[in-house]
């Protein structure tokens, strides 16, 4: 049963600490499916970590979240890559897809499902949506001629290309002239319908400046796009004309429906697709805005399916000022970075360093600087000094916070601002809000200097305040750094899983009961040198 937003909407998320938690809301979050012509790289990891943290945040709020990722396995590039590797396309994709599964395991990605477009459930969903759009009269046969970029799998008009030389604007290589009989999706008929829909859903695309780019594309006029090829075998045949296979977008985008059971018998044990659809967040990069925010809602409208509720559009994580891609050869393997700064150090950097929607420029020096300032010097130092002073002045036993501590108000503000950051899918803002509490707690210790005082009620109170702040911090950073949050949680003597805490109640000041052993342990974030 779908629960309406009005029951669990923004009121709850902006509600103050200690408010009654409402019933769980269903939330469906997706990443793009990644094309298996390359192995997982930092660009893939970026979007996937954002989706994972968003998912974990909503789980803390008590929402019932389904988080989907997967691999895109059809098309010309795969056919060509398989041929080059001397493999069948299926054997080739079977060799690459597990590398994505494994990469996401190592990055501690809490996806509930991993869809491959070569699976029967996906093929069934694609056949269903194609047939519906065809029956609606929005797919028609026509002759296509145009300038085509093979890596993009897109036709370009001359004014979109870099001149002289008709170079692809993404790949900066010459496009090719193609002419063939294709089926076309009549996107041009959807201009007004899309603009009307977005006018009624003005915050569906986040952040706003990326959404405005999509609206600009629609207002600039929409062209029908080709959806089939006869020249390629590696794909899903059109149900009414199987000598054509569907090409690129009907295949790729439909994964979001396929994973929740669209086009399949609804007795699969997970309910029907209407339980999860429309998706709450499609996380995408800015380079696929046209397909996700223009093509996709039009395709859904044609098929009689509600468009998604939201898109969260990221910029590119650049490396030396260029988009990271196989073609440009500047691919950073995310798994190598884990070895340098630890898994959670890497996740934190990805989430905190760049405002989501803007381009980020990855540098190793930047990674280390961010790690040292926020993790080693702030959070790590706070945890270490609290454990040290509790060990020396409180017999290693945690003490209770002061209900009227000045940190109580700081914690309440940090919580409200953290909520606000996640609400607009700005993890960097959410984490910065949490860091305000970390900095204030370090400041509270420096102002009171408990390490210089004699043991007694004053020291106990100050250390109780710091322990309570760390308890709240552990919860608020859990979506970004699940393992580090659990370590903080256990070192201050808390039991159970920090991820099982439920907000907003768990963020209310004064719940650290004390009377439990506080352990120092090794440095959680040892300082790094470049
Ligand atoms: Zn291209």
Give a brief outline of the structure.
The chain has 530 residues and is α/β, with parallel strands linked by helices. The protein is 45% helix and 15% strand. The strands form 4 sheets. Strands 3-2-1-12-13-7 form a 6-stranded parallel sheet, sandwiched between helices. It has a 4-stranded antiparallel sheet with strand order 5-4-6-8.
List the helices and strands and how they pair.
Layout: H1 5-8, H2 10-13, E1 26-35, H3 42-60, E2 64-72, H4 76-85, H5 89-106, E3 113-116, H6 120-135, E4 139-149, E5 154-156, E6 176-185, H7 191-200, E7 205-206, H8 208-219, E8 225-226, E9 228-229, E10 237-238, E11 241-246, H9 249-253, H10 255-258, E12 281-285, H11 289-302, E13 311-314, E14 317-319, E15 322-323, H12 334-352, E16 360-362, H13 364-393, H14 406-423, H15 427-448, H16 457-477, H17 482-491
Parallel strand pairs: 1-2, 1-12, 2-3, 7-13, 12-13, 14-16
Antiparallel strand pairs: 4-5, 4-6, 6-8, 9-11, 10-11, 14-15
Helix pairs in contact: 3-12, 4-5, 8-11, 12-13, 13-15, 13-16, 14-15, 14-16, 15-16, 16-17
Zinc ion binds next to loops.
Describe the fold and architecture.
The chain has 530 residues and is of the alpha/beta class. 45% of the residues lie in helices and 15% in strands. The protein has 17 helices and 16 strands. The protein has helices spanning 5-8, 10-13, 42-60, 76-85, 89-106, 120-135, 191-200, 208-219, 249-253, 255-258, 289-302, 334-352, 364-393, 406-423, 427-448, 457-477, 482-491, and strands spanning 26-35, 64-72, 113-116, 139-149, 154-156, 176-185, 205-206, 225-226, 228-229, 237-238, 241-246, 281-285, 311-314, 317-319, 322-323, 360-362. The strands form 4 sheets. Strands 3-2-1-12-13-7 form a 6-stranded parallel sheet, sandwiched between helices. Strands 5-4-6-8 form a 4-stranded antiparallel sheet. Strands 9-11-10 form a 3-stranded antiparallel sheet. It is elongated, with a radius of gyration of 25 Å. The model is unreliable at 1-21 (pLDDT under 50). The site of zinc ion has 6 residues, from loops.
């Amino acid at each position: 049963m779908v629960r309406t937003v009005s029951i669990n909407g923004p009121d709850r998320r902006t509600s103050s600490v200690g408010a009654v938690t409402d019933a769980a809301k269903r939330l469906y979050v997706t990443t793009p499916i990644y094309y298996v012509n390359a192995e997982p790289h930092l660009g893939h990891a970026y979007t996937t970590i954002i989706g994972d943290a968003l998912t974990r945040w909503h789980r803390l709020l008590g929402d019932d979240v389904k988080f989907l990722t997967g691999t895109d396995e059809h098309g010309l590039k795969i056919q060509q890559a398989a041929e080059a590797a001397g493999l069948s396309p299926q054997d080739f994709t079977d060799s690459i897809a597990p590398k994505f599964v494994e990469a996401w395991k190592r990055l501690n990605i809490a996806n509930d499902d991993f869809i491959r477009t070569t699976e029967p459930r996906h093929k069934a969903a694609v056949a269903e949506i194609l047939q519906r759009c065809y029956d609606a009269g929005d797919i028609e046969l026509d002759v296509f001629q145009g300038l085509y970029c093979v890596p993009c799998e897109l036709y370009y008009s001359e004014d979109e290309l870099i001149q002289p030389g008709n170079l692809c604007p993404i790949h900066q290589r010459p496009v090719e002239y193609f002419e063939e009989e294709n089926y076309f999706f009549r996107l041009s008929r959807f201009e007004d319908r899309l603009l009307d829909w977005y006018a009624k859903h003005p915050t569906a695309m986040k952040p706003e400046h990326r959404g405005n780019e999509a609206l600009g594309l629609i207002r600039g006029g929409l062209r029908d796009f080709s959806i089939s090829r006869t020249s390629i075998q590696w794909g899903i045949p059109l149900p009414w004309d199987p000598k054509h296979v569907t090409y690129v977008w009907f295949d790729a985008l439909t994964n979001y429906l396929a994973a929740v059971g669209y086009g399949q018998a609804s007795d699969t044990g997970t309910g029907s697709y209407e339980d999860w659809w429309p998706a709450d967040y499609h996380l995408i990069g800015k380079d696929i805005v046209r397909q996700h925010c223009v093509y996709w809602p039009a395709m859904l409208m044609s098929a009689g399916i509600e468009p998604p509720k939201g898109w969260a559009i990221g910029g590119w994580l650049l490396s030396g000022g260029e988009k990271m891609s196989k073609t440009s050869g500047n691919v950073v393997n995310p798994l190598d970075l884990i070895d340098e700064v630890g898994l959670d150090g890497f996740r934190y950097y990805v989430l905190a360093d760049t405002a989501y929607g803007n381009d980020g420029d990855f540098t190793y020096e930047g990674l280390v600087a961010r790690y040292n300032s926020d993790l080693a010097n702030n959070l790590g130092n706070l945890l270490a000094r609290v454990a040290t002073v509790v060990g020396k002045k409180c017999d290693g036993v945690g003490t209770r916070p002061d209900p009227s501590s000045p940190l109580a108000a700081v914690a309440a503000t940090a919580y409200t601002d953290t909520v606000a950051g996640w609400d607009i899918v700005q993890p960097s803002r959410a984490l910065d809000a949490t860091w305000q509490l970390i900095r204030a707690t370090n400041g509270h210790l420096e102002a009171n200097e408990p390490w210089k005082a004699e043991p007694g009620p004053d020291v106990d109170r100050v250390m109780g305040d710091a322990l309570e702040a760390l308890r709240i911090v552990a919860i608020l950073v859990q979506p970004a750094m699940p393992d580090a949050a659990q370590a903080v949680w256990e070192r201050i003597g808390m039991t159970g899983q920090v991820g099982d805490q439920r907000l907003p109640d768990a963020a209310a000041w004064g719940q650290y009961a004390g009377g439990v052993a506080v352990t120092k342990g090794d440095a959680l974030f040892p300082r790094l040198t470049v």
